[in-house]
Design brief:
Blueprint lengths: L2 H10 L4 H13 L10 H13 L18 H8 L2 E3 L18 E6 L8 E6 L5 H16 L3 E4 L5 H12 L4 E4 L13 H10 L1 E4 L9 H14 L2 E5 L6 H11 L3 E4 L10 H8 L3 E2 L3 H17 L1
Parallel strand pairs: 3-4, 3-7, 4-5, 5-6, 7-8, 8-9
Antiparallel strand pairs: 1-2, 2-6
Protein name: DNA-protecting protein DprA
Family: Belongs to the DprA/Smf family.
Organism: Fundicoccus ignavus
């Protein structure tokens, strides 16, 4: 069993992220990443990590609960997984406080090599918001940028659908659940289409259903993967604001669609403007500003 298979096997044992991180650090720090983790070495690594965690509140995997009968399952999942440190792993995620150690994928990994822009927003998107999204997506597809969102209702769905309509290899969906489930259920066909023609990413095992805290974890990945995040309409306490705040914390550029002060779905965007986000004053100027920012980033 190799390093990646070991991490996936531990995921199958429902080990927490923090426990996996301790395993990862131990293996890397002791220069064991190229070793074969069968039998004695596997138990030695887990034993040593468990000893180091005796006084910490991280749930451990007891040695007598290691189930090697699931190794074939882990090996099969390896072919659909990226491990942190691999060349195709999104480099921007390395800057996150809690980067995914394993990310599962369906579709074309070549999309990860292209310039990406994240677009997020309300589940109750207006006709105006949809119109803006379609125009933005059209211009960004002309630039050959990959558009990233979270496959939620509203803004996310509009971004993915429009990108899929315009071209292949144009959009990435980051899920808050495993690939064997769809959330929302109404996006099942869109998710299947993107798994064939575009790219889906998830840090969750295929049979993991969506749970509330996983949406926040998904949001950090949407915000962290791109140098720019665009917010199209967001209410006062929306998940989109959480994502935008992640983007600001990660020192990403944030662009927002301003709205009327009487519109509940404009509150979030207007609040982001107050703390320094960039206003979208026109579709063309927004794309031009982003091109200029990307040029500066590439030259720095």
């Amino acid at each position: 069993m190799n390093f990646k298979e070991l991490l996936i096997l531990l995921q199958l044992h429902r080990c927490s992220y923090h426990y996996l991180l301790e395993i990862f650090r131990y293996i890397v720090n002791n220069q064991l990443s190229e070793q074969c983790f069968d039998g004695d070495l596997l138990r030695e690594v887990i034993h040593r990590v468990n000893l180091s965690l005796d006084n910490r509140r991280i749930q451990q995997l007891p040695l007598d609960q290691i189930n090697l009968s699931r190794l074939n399952e882990a090996k099969n999942l390896t072919n659909r997984a990226i491990m942190i440190g691999e060349s195709i792993y999104p480099s921007n995620w390395l800057q996150l406080p809690q980067p995914p150690l394993i990310i599962y994928f369906e579709g074309d990994l070549a999309l990860l090599k292209k310039q990406s822009i994240s677009i997020i927003g309300t589940r109750d998107v207006s006709h105006y918001g949809i119109d803006v999204i379609k125009k933005l997506v059209a211009l960004m597809c002309e630039e050959d940028w990959v558009l990233i969102s979270g496959l939620a209702k509203g803004v996310d769905t509009t971004v993915h659908l429009e990108a899929c309509r315009l071209k292949r290899k144009a959009t990435i969906g980051i899920l808050a659940n495993g690939f064997n489930y769809s959330y929302p259920l109404q996006n099942a066909s869109l998710q299947a289409q993107m798994g064939h023609e575009q790219l889906l990413l998830s840090e969750y095992l295929p049979n993991q259903k969506a749970q509330r805290h996983q949406f926040i974890m998904r949001n950090r990945l949407v915000a962290g993967i791109s140098p720019v995040t665009i917010v199209i309409e967001a209410a006062k306490d929306s998940g989109s604001l959480i994502t935008a705040n992640y983007a600001l914390q990660y020192n990403r550029e944030v662009f927002v669609l301003p709205g009327r002060i009487t519109d509940d779905q404009a509150y979030g965007c207007n609040a982001l403007l107050k703390v320094g986000a960039n206003p979208i004053l026109s579709i063309e100027s927004c794309v031009a500003e982003i091109k200029d920012l990307l040029r500066q980033m590439n030259n720095s």
